[in-house]
Amino acid sequence: MVTRNTSVRNSGPATQPRRTTTTGSWARVSNANDRAGRTGSLRVRPAPRDEENVLSPSEVAQATVEEDAELETGQEEARPADTALATDPAHLYLKEIARTPLLTREQEVELARRIEQGDVAAVEEMVRANLRLVVSVARRYLGRGLSFTDLIQEGNIGLMRAIQKFDWRRGFKFSTYATWWIRQAITRAIADQSRTIRIPVHVSETINRFTRITQELSQQLGRMPTPAEIAQRLGVNVDKVHNLIRAGQRPISLEIPVGEEEETQLGDFIADEVSRTPYEAAAQIMLRQEVEEILDTLTPREKQVIELRFGLDNGKQRTLEEVGIIFGISRERIRQIEAEALRKLRVPGGRLSQLREYVD
User: Fold this and answer.
1) Which residue, 39, 13, 45, 8, is CA-closest to 26?
2) Which of 68, 208, 205 is nearest to 136 (CA)?
3) Which domains does the chain have, with CATH numbers?
4) Contacts of 326 by beta carbon, 8 Å cutoff, 6+ apart
5) What pTM did the predictor assign?
6) pLDDT tens digits for 219-255?
7) d(Cα 221, Cα 204) in Å, to the nearest integer?
């Protein structure tokens, strides 16, 4: 197990580099240049056991090496800082790791040989020299649900795995090979941690393919593609596409602050479609009172029969037979009582006509 912990203080004298003890050939991994003014923590732990597979040469051969070009030409330093990078901890971290010189091809091979022999100092040097590569990859996943520092932490996990699995005899540059492991660690972390409701990793990867293909088709067609067009490109049926669309939706908290002063929440702007408005509630109360007054003109038995038949007491309408059982008489007699009560209520010009304004 490998644990790399970078502790940072806001004030005070500069501290000496720290070393943490681990087990196996990964005996110690040190922190270089732990300086005052740097905040946050960085933890590196081994990848889960289900990631033990080694990347194939064909996969590595297809890897883009633009990260290498950026690091070697200094373009990474010249880029305008993103909003997430402009915070003090991230900015200081970038300045600190930039002091470590990049490795040449010969140095990478030499370090890889020493790592095979269990040289912990070589592991330490390889990690420090490639921290900028992790930052370069992590920047591309900003806005996916994890903070920039979390992306770096997960990327460092992939970097450590790449160091363990790197085979210098295949002839690939380490940065090209490590990019795949860094991306895998970051995307797995996003799939596992960024969503309120976790979805399986393979579904998350399919959603990413769906999103990429949708963007490609939009550029080719000049419009949003239909589900059938997306399904044809993905090689799945249309129902699968609809399921991916639903699975890709992210829930949003109703307690998200809104506005510059953040005094209101998103839920304050969403209407409650279940509860009645004050006007509807008042009208319902008045209607109930009117109905009670009209029913009071009937005999007690007639009033109770009407209430049971139309569910005015508890909202449950009862059959003639059920009402007859309650009164201990036949259903035909209940029908006659109901008919007589309704005849009284339907008298032309009676109060029953006043209820129409509530219905209209």
Assistant:
1) 45
2) 68
3) 19-194 (1.20.120.1810), 202-269 (1.10.10.10), 278-359 (1.10.10.10)
4) 308, 318
5) 0.45
6) 999 999 999 999 999 888 899 889 888 887 777 778 8
7) 26
